[in-house]
Amino acid sequence: MKTATRIQPGTTIVDVTGDIDMRTSPGLRRTLLDSLKETPRLVVNLREVRYVDSSGIASLVEVLKEARNTEKRLVLFGLNKTVHQVLQLTRLTTIFEIRETEKEALEA
To answer: Which pTM value belongs to this model?
Structure first.
């Protein structure tokens, strides 16, 4: 898994590529929590994520919890069918703010 960070006024975008699993989720968690400290809105691009396991979901939930505790926003976009199904099965699609495209995520 790899991440790349882009900064826009009032928003940090983190592009994630690869699988989010037990091996990679701690690094993703650190990246997202560090990015969240520096911005009022964190947008996470999951378009290139092929797979996410329970540890990856736990990392995203932890970042969402921190965002809410600090009155910041977390927006996910670009979920493929597999990642979206995992969030649906765990009933997290109603908890996370999810958009289809980067444009929609930035306008949200």
So the answer is: 0.95
